[in-house]
Amino acid sequence: MAKPDDRSDNVERIAHAIDNTMENMREAEDYLKAHADEMDPRDKADIQAKNDRRNEAIQGFREEIKDEARHQNKQD
User: Residue ranges per domain, the chain?
Assistant: First the structure.
């Protein structure tokens, strides 16, 4: 028998993922600021591309939170 869908902590888990992703972005930006002049251009581009993907992920997480809010409003 399948377990019922427990979405009760989804918003909290998604918010935690957003926080972690934003922290990783800040750390990467700080690293670039401190070391960009001594880095290989490809490495800099890789870090910038990764932050671009992180930003896209954050946007996706925010959409998921909206979906969860709509789901919870339907349940109430």
Answer: 11-75
